[in-house]
């Protein structure tokens, strides 16, 4: 190989390396922004479930008690759902529990949708569906934490 060919190959390799570095920087910044946006979404969901959804149930506010009485679940059902929502809200903020908490809350939203359709004639059926979308996104995006959770559970057991 001639010296010119070697120099050209080295220059091409250098250019490719610098191009991949430049291309990786925006991807890293983009990834950081995506992680921050996802974390912000989790905080908003946690605040919603803790304050707007679980709290009225746990303090037996009339706005929460009446629908549960109408369903025939009474205060016991209301407290159980309130505790599950509060646990899910806390779980959304704990890294190892994020995906599991989002999955659990998504399951609650499926149940809420079914109840809205069957008991309340679909009056507020869109609300659980709207909440289901970001919960599924969080559960999927944080699914790698499920392996960490399983390792912790196996070590404890």
UniProtKB/TrEMBL annotation:
The chain crosses the membrane at residues 36-56, 76-94, 101-119, 125-141. It comes from the Bacteria. It is found in: Membrane. Coiled coil: none annotated. It is a multi-pass membrane protein. It holds the Pfam family DoxX_2. Keywords: Membrane, Signal, Transmembrane, Transmembrane helix. Residues 1-23 form the signal peptide. The keyword Transmembrane applies. This is DoxX family protein. It comes from Streptomyces marokkonensis.
